[in-house]
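ok posting inputs for the zinc ion job
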Amino acid sequence: MTMTGKFMGAVLCASLLFTPAAFAQDGGPLARPIYERDQWLPPSVPTSDDVLRVPTPATYNAPKGSFVLVGGRLFDGTGKAARPATVVVIGKTITAVLEPGDRNWPAEAVVHDVTGKTVMPGLIDLHTHLTFMAGSDAASVYSSANLSASESTMRAVKRMSVYLESGITSVRDVASHGDVPFVLKRLQASGEVPGPRIFTAGQLITQTGGHAAIHTFGPGWPEVANGNPNGMARIASGPDGWREAVRIQFAKGADLIKLASEYSQDEITAAVDEAHSLGLPVTVDAETQYIDMAIKAGVDSIEHPLPRSDAAVALMAKRGIASVPTMIAYRVIQRGSGGYFGSTSRRFELNETTIEAMAAKMRRAGVKMGIGLDVVALAGTGFLPGSYIDELESFTRIGFTKSEALVAATKTGAEIMRMGDRLGTIEPGKLADIIVVDGNPDQDFAALRRVKTAFVNGRLMLQDGRIYKEPHVEVPLPERK
Ligand SMILES: [Zn+2]
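and the output
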């Protein structure tokens, strides 16, 4: 798209009109701030596949060729009822959704017969830690702090396959070790490593002694400034320290920033301001008064079903702050150990009833809610796909219909990642993250145990329920001159 004079004019007007977020009487922003980058690159400009909206060529990481999915019922993720339809993909892009019988697709397209199956957007898991040591891996939390990059990588690669097998085509990694998630994000995008699309926060940022800080300290902790650079958390002190910690994740290529309690108001306000100036959304793992501080600072989403006031819930709804309740994680914790022990930021009682009640309260208030699991911290990907199905069922218990829960798992998940214009539904112009399911998942979530095919960015990554790897293509040796 070229920049026409009219378009330039619109940009200039938007720029003149831009003022830093207006503030409510309680000192918090009235609405989400306008991101600096958004002024210059409206979402309608199809130049980028990433949250940062860094312009990329239209062919960036696109596979060659085209394919069509014929004969299936389409659940497109918009909320519309499933219907018979044909989906056409060229390169990485969904180019058309056709009526049954319409054969208007490229002659060379590979035709997949999906008769009797449901075609739908790939599922999104908004809360994972690709490298986290869990279960029998975690001999002690200190070994997590000292995990080598190579071990982290292999752990994550194995999990990426399980995500695909479970129909999950995007994950939001909200803290992993060192540079590992950034490397895997690149290798997945180029098709070299099969797995879901990765959006990563890099290391989470917390205070000395804060939630997850223990995972970053080796022997001699906590007197290690900033923690271990190869760890999954970064320790920061004071507003400037929190700004610097945000800048470091940004420099590594973070898609979002993850903050965890505890912190002071000055610290989280500085961190959120810095992230938003850099065009990055912020999510927070917090509870009680730390949620109040996060709302005041203007965060974009809040993880978990942890305690918060009714006023906080109302403010989340009013300001468009999303929730990723991760009910399944707390259910597993409750059933496994009877409560949450050993974290300095979890000093309250939780049980299966209170977590669902909190999520239901957010639903009733109109808070935007997406699906995230966080069970990777407890059992790796071992519980998949049951853990995802369980979270969908929790969503129906707190007031979602089955269809609405699947929209939360796809369209809303993409919106929470600020990728709603590129992912989450099957519509012309969207990136081709598509799964084919044996059965009707919009009527019976158990069908999600039978994900047969998955495409990520138009690339076949799962075929007949197994990871698909493109065959090796030999490069000829150079000829003798
Ligand atoms: Zn987590």
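notes: The longest helix spans residues 149-165. The chain has 14 helices and 20 strands.
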